[in-house]
Amino acid sequence: QVQPVQSGGGAVQAGASLTLSCEASGRISTLNGMGWFRQVPGKAREFVASIEWKDGTTYYADAVEGRFTISRDGAKNTMYLQMDNLKPEDTAVYYCRVRAGRPETGSWGQGTQVTVSA
Q1: Tens digit of each residue's pLDDT, the chain (118 residues)
Q2: Alpha helices of 1-118 — where are they, by DSSP H?
Q3: Helix (H, G, I), strand (E, B) or coil at 70
Q4: Which of 42, 69, 94, 105 is the most exposed place for a label (fewest CB within 10 A)?
């Protein structure tokens, strides 16, 4: 199994930047990909961005394309989400998710709050 541990987040004003990190531990050789999701109270958790671990292919939600950048550091088994030009509507709890193995299974991080004020 592969388990994620998140760090980062906080409270900023609109237009500012934040970086989230997610370190994977366990059977890293089975890691397929990692991603970020976010959730606000009363709404479903939504996809933000993801990255394929082996070839680095990235995917973004339309709402964050051009403002957020997902990346990985293989030496540190860590994924990052650089969030620039943050908007109040980016306020949410952000969750890291890892995908590993065949058949593939997923694990969630503990979540971290991001608050953007106008």
Answers
A1: 899 999 999 999 999 999 999 999 999 999 999 999 999 999 999 999 999 999 999 999 999 999 999 999 999 999 999 999 999 999 999 999 999 999 999 999 999 999 999 9
A2: none
A3: strand
A4: 42
